[in-house]
């Protein structure tokens, strides 16, 4: 069993490494994901032993082997977070199709998180394929699992529409100043993933976490009241919490 957890952790690290690469190349509009990796600073081609998740960063003491410039902490952090989340998924959902579904969600949401954090854009290239993939998963659940009824499916669609309407209202009345249209699309994806009432928990938690953080940034004068603070990353942090603790929090409300 322990070996299996180690395997899942390593698998998560590899997916984290892939997310780093994906986000970097999507921003640069590079078409091929399979072209060899290179250092973003000196563009020297990297060997396989420079690309081992986590380990290479530690052994190289966070510096490029070729130009000695510092490697961003983003790389090992994203790898580690993916590794830990994958282990948590397996711990909570075991050998099941649900685990595969959550592995996929972590890959998708963590990619959106990183892209939004770095470039303040929620990319269509991740959002639309993710919505499509979630629908495919639901189709499989619907066909395979008798408990996954048409009402449940309807609930997910309803939540997707309500969540995107909620964001669209804010987007519309703030004329796109309070949040971007990307959040409307992200709202649809998250509603589809969580359904009612869990999507309300996600939104509530995102504002709870994001609010004090925004005030803190305004206090530090890094942002003004007028500047837009990306909500996307907070929605995704809240989503990860609700994936693992949603049922516990809900049972608290229902006694
Ligand atoms: Zn370099």
Explain what the structure shows.
The chain is an all-alpha fold and 255 residues long. The chain has two domains: 1-95, no CATH class; 96-255, no CATH class. The chain contains nine helices and no strands. It has helices spanning 2-27, 55-59, 74-93, 97-119, 124-144, 150-173, 181-194, 198-219, 232-254. Helix 3 (74-93) runs antiparallel to helix 4 and helix 4 (97-119) packs antiparallel against helix 5. It is globular. The protein starts with a helix and ends with a helix. The model has no long low-confidence stretch (mean pLDDT 89). It binds zinc ion. Zinc ion is lined by residues 39, 41-42, 44, 64, 66-67, 69. Zinc ion binds next to loops.
Task: Write the topology of this structure.
Layout lengths: L1 H26 L27 H5 L14 H20 L3 H23 L4 H21 L5 H24 L7 H14 L3 H22 L12 H23 L1
Helix pairs in contact: 1-3, 1-4, 3-4, 4-5, 4-9, 5-7, 6-7, 8-9
The structure holds zinc ion.
Zinc ion (ZN) binds next to loops.
- Described by the principal axes of the CA atoms, the overall outline is globular
Q: Whole-Å distance between the termini?
A: 34 Å
The number of helical elements comes to: 9
Q: Stretches where pLDDT falls below 50 for ≥5 residues? A: none
Q: Sketch the major β-sheet.
A: none
Structural class: mainly alpha
Helix content: 55-70%
Oligomeric organization of the protein chains: single chain
The small molecules bound here are:
zinc ion
Q: What string gives the helices and strands in order?
A: HHHHHHHHH
According to DSSP, the number of beta strands is 0
Rg estimate, integer Å: 19 Å
- State which percent range the strand residues make up: under 5%
- Structural domain tally: 2
Mean pLDDT: 89
